[in-house]
Amino acid sequence: MEKEIQKRCPYKIDIGAVFTHRPKDHKTVKAAAFQAQEKELVFDIDMTDYDDVRNCCSGADICPKCWPLMIIAVKIIDTALREDFGFEHLLWVYSGRRGIHCWVCDEQARKLSPNARSAVAEYLSVVKGGENQTKKVNLYDHSIHPSIQRAMKVVKTCFQDYAVKKQDFMGDEERLDKVLGLIPDESLRKHLREDYGEADSETSSFKWQALKQRVEDAKTLNKQEWKKSWAAVEEIMLQYTYPRLDVNVSKGVNHLLKSPFCVHPKTGRVCVPMDPDNIENFDPFQVPTLSQLCEELNQMGGTEDEKKRLKDYKKTSLKEPMQVFEDFLQKLEKTWKGKKLEQSDIKREF
Q1: What are phi and psi of 94, to 5 degrees?
Q2: Helix intervals (H) in 28-167
Q3: Vertex 92, ends 121 and 2: CA angle to 5°?
Q4: pLDDT tens sequence across 136-169
Q5: What's the pLDDT score for residue 306?
Q6: Segments of 95-249 assigned E as strands
Q7: How many whole angstroms separate alpha carbon 140 and alpha carbon 235?
Q8: Which residues are within 8 A (CB) of 69 and not within 5 positions of it... i.e. 6 or more apart?
Q9: CA–CA dist 344, 212 (Å, integer)
């Protein structure tokens, strides 16, 4: 395969499903016979889907102030897929520009039907609604699902630094109106307006603390306000930070996704794997570019024998991402070895 890729020199590689026939032969068989047999369960999280709740950037742009959204997404989705669904083999990959991809490679995940894939994606979707919908998170029945409770633990550790400090999410009149618009009770909104006075006279930190205190006080002082807004604080935090998935990417068996280690055509950055256990230290702005890798190879010292013994990628900034990828593959390989031994025992192939 390596020689074939070098021969064709593609500028991009997309990965899809495993089909009943070779893709190049799809015109030689009946359409009904050409079917997808299995495909990794994939998740695509794009920073542009957060444009309504980030104030630093928009569109394809990212910066250190909004990148924490991707860190939060990895922590929440990775834990949910492992603990709630029992998946083990998850590969997280930086898209090379403004988002991240998750490849779930367990056998049971690869063989899920489109309906089952959609169900998993919907289970993980809390922020719902289009551009014209103001309130996109709704928690009901005075009880929060255990998976959302677990996600809230992640959100609470990051919210003050990310939303309050980095994004200053209540810093001016427009931003304040957006937050207050998420509170269902009109009376509570009015009281908060009175607390704030001039919108620009207080910091986001003060306004956020005042909002939380008002909701907490309503529990004992104003049952009507509490009844409508008991989850207002949690709903605001989730709307501003909870992962936003492209459900269509996850449920479609025929959907293509960019291969790991491709080079993004706009940024030149390599789509490198990320370690979810060390996601806090992943810096998208330090991801190597194609020109940087070429420069690193050209500058490498050592004798000719040393150069031959060492694989090219180990001489560059791809060494650590490749180690993450190899560790993932080794764990996945062990499951296949066990599967093949089990099959040979059944067939009595000794």
Answers
A1: -75, 135
A2: 68-83, 107-110, 114-123, 146-159
A3: 120
A4: 999 987 778 999 999 999 999 999 999 999 999 9
A5: 59
A6: 99-104
A7: 11
A8: 47, 50, 54, 162, 241
A9: 61
Pair of tokens at residue 101:
């991809």
Would you say how long the chain is, in residues? Answer: 350
Residue whose C-alpha is closest to residue 95's, from 14, 182, 204: 14
pTM of the model: 0.90
pLDDT in the model for residue 30: 87
> CA–CA separation, 27 vs 34, rounded Å?
9
Buried b (16+ CB within 10 A) or exposed e, 330-346: eeeeeeeeeeeeeeeee
User: Lowest-confidence range among 181-195, 252-266, 289-303?
Assistant: 289-303
Please report, as a single letter, which amino acid is at residue 251. Answer: K
Name, of 95-109, 128-142, 216-230, the range with top average pLDDT.
95-109
Q: Which helix (H) or strand (E) holds 172?
A: none
Helix, strand, coil percentages for the chain (3-state, nearest 5): 55, 10, 40
Distance CA 101, CA 94 (A): 6
CA 172, 166, 139: angle at the middle one, nearest 5? 80
Share of the chain above pLDDT 70, in %: 93
Question: Which residue intervals of 160-267 are DSSP H helices?
Answer: 173-180, 186-196, 204-221, 223-229, 232-241, 247-251
The pair of structure tokens assigned to 88 is: 């083990």
Residue 124 CB neighbour total at 10 angstroms: 21
> Which residue from 39, 41, 17, 45 is spatially nearest to 246, judged by alpha carbons?
45
